[in-house]
Amino acid sequence: MEISDNETSPTRLKVITFQILGLLIDVLGSLGGLLVLYGWIAAVTKTSWTVLDAYATGVATYSTLAGTVLLCASIYNKTKPLPPSAASIFFTAPVVVICILGSVIYSAWMKVSIPIHSIIGFAILGLAGGLHRQFRTEEAQR
């Protein structure tokens, strides 16, 4: 079924909703990645930036809550998710796993804690990945 530009049917609304959700999930994942970077930069340089710490804590808090709410709300998504994309299988997931393992090895080797902003950033990346799987549907691909 082809959707015309001026159509305001529930199908068109659903497509737009999934596209907006996809964009929000991309932003959520990006914030998670930035938190990981910020946490490690602050830890490795042993520098604290008070203003950035305050913003990072707020971003971490509200991004985690938003991701959790979206994941919980995904039970109402009646569409069937598509399988993971090739980019997720061959790039995104391996990079995140390698970064987490690298963080664990580095922290054990150097006898330091993994920075809390990085831990929360990894959690947000995981939430975003799960949300992409949940909301990546055929309707959203149209």
Could you give a quick summary of the protein structure above?
By secondary structure, the chain is mostly helical.
Radius of gyration: 18 Å
Uncertain segments = none
State which percent range the strand residues make up. Answer: under 5%
- Quote the distance from N terminus to C terminus: 10 Å
* Shape by Cα distribution: elongated
Quantity of strands, as a count: 0
Number of helices: 5
Number of domains: 1
State the helical fraction.
over 70%
Order of helices and strands: HHHHH
Mean pLDDT: 86
Protein described:
- The protein has 142 residues and is mainly alpha-helical.
- Helix 1 (10-45) runs antiparallel to helix 2 (50-73).
- Helix content is 77%, strand content 0%.
- The chain has one domain (10-141).
Keywords summarizing the entry:
0% strand, 77% helix, mainly alpha, 142 residues
SSE map:
Elements: H1 10-45, H2 50-73, H3 86-110, H4 116-135, H5 138-141
Helix pairs in contact: 1-2, 1-4, 2-4
